[in-house]
Amino acid sequence: MEDVMSVPRLNFPDRNRAPCANCKTAKRKCDRATSLSCSRCRKHNIACIPSATARWRVESIDSTGQRLRHSYRAARTEGSVSSPVEQTATQTPSSPPCGASITPLPFTNFDLVEINVPPFPAIDEDLPPDLDPVSNSALSPSASAALPAIGDLPAELDDPYLIPAPAIAPWPTSYLWQAFVQSIAPGVSLEEEGSDNKLTQYFASRVAGTPSLFSAIIFLSHAVKTNWTTDISSHIDSTVIAAVAIAMEQEAVAHIGEAMSRHLQPPPQSSAHCITTLTTLITLCSAYIAQGNIPKLWACLQQAMEVARKGFAASVAIDESFLFLVRWLGYIHIVAMLDETGYSIDAPNYFSIAAQQGHSSLNPEAIFHDVDSFLGISQAVGDLLYRLGRIIRFQRYPSTGDTNKTDITDMEIRMQLILRKLKAYKQDGRELPSHFDHYNEALVHTALLRLLEFKQENPQSKLMQSTVAQILDSCAAVPEKSPVAKLMLFPLFWAGVHTTRPVYQSFILRRLEVLRSGCCFSNVGHLIEIIEQRWLGHKNGEHSQGTHRPLP
DSSP secondary-structure letter at 371? Predict the structure, then answer.
């Protein structure tokens, strides 16, 4: 009796609603959701144990979600950041919400076959002030004077594994560099630390003698750390750090402009030059994703795709460093096509083209054997998402290309084949053997959700809501502290956009708060605001689309 009384009392709706372990084994109906133990266990006088394979692997999910929402709103209030509702009410026509009306790029020709790419630094010329994340004029003269020149940086910074000595710790560049090596690189990667970490291997280890890449990494580090809930070091002025980041961005963009002008001229540049240029461009793309700066991101992506296209015509095409960067570039392109923002760049399926040949899962029972070791996406699933993205993009921008019923049928058959394979595996009650399988399952159902939206399915239909439940089941099957859980941003967002159930919303907020603490490049705090705006719109009977969200 004392053991029973020691169990914390929970509200019944917040409990684990799956059948207990005994009822699940006996395949009997369980009523544990209405009491601390089910009637069948009480009748047989046995312990009623919650199922370890529960459909929802969370405890007190509603109260936890409410606590997280309250703490997040309190943090935004303390930081003088208004709530989503207040922002909508107080915005003026001169300052439109980012993404609500994106100003077109200064160039509109996205044909990658023609070599007619403007210099990269020109993207700043026609940007409206509200889309420029930081302005040099906002910096104080003292902050600008405190900027160190590239040549004045400590020589020890060439070592990517360096832990700074106290003598150089006050340097903002040293702080941002170590933040990238020690926090960002392991935080966003599946391999948390050591030489196996891809960002350390392909990015940090290349900065020696490459000021453009070093500058881009410092700029990326500031953009990412600004989004994370971790505190910036108190002994460094945040204004000075922001000033250093701006200077580093300008330095990297200037180098890219010069590199691209040489890249477009024969003879072809060396493999090292191509890889360095592409690495710097991917770093800048990641920084603009973190900032939510869509025009600069699109321009930077276009430049990177031009470098990739010309690289495949040279000897660098078989270099694993080059292929790794191209796969990452292809992934960003796929996600951008599936996004709601005005993305009209046309490009090949670089993710599949540069896929790791012969790579397979270490688990022989895994459903998906062709998983990318950094992005976690199966080649088959990546190809499916690319085909769906092109269909959605051509519908949005008919002038950029054409699609027909055969393309849609081809994509649907591929999707049905994967879904049937997953269903057949799980029909005997078996769990998917790996976290990567659960992640790719979530991506396939996310693709199905986007396809149903493309076909204008009723958002509240049974098929749409069951698809949302399938996505969240796959996300919940991966523990939140698992490295693979870092990848779940994309399915969590789309499930959040289309759900109205409080239990689902609480689960999504909880997982997003974990990601916001230091697991991805995107501004997850802004993503949470967008989802909450959608939920508020659902309550008011509204349905909004086209709001910018950060790319994963």
Answer: B
Spatial CB neighbours of 349, under 8 Å, sequence gap ≥ 6: 330, 334, 382, 383, 386
Q: Are 523 and 550 within 8 A, CB to CB?
A: yes
Q: How far is CA 537 from the centre of its chain?
A: 24
**Per-residue pLDDT tens over the stretch 217-246:** 999 999 999 998 765 555 677 888 899 999
Instruction: State the Cα–Cα distance between residues 309 and 329, nearest whole angstrom.
Output: 12
Q: Is residue 511 within 8 Å of 492, Cβ to Cβ?
A: yes
Token digits of residue 267: 């003879």
Q: Are 91 and 227 contacting, i.e. CB atoms less than 8 angstroms apart?
A: no
Residue type, 41: C
Token couple for 233: 């070091």
Identify the CA nearest to 512 among candidates 490, 533, 534.
Answer: 490
The residues near 115 (Cβ < 8 Å, ≥ 6 apart) are 264, 306
Q: Which of 280-311 are b and which e, b meaning 16 or more Cβ less than 10 Å from the residue's Cβ?
A: bbbbbbbbbbbbbbbbbbbbbbbbbbbbbbbb
pTM: 0.71
**Token representation of residue 367:** 């459903």
DSSP state of 138: G
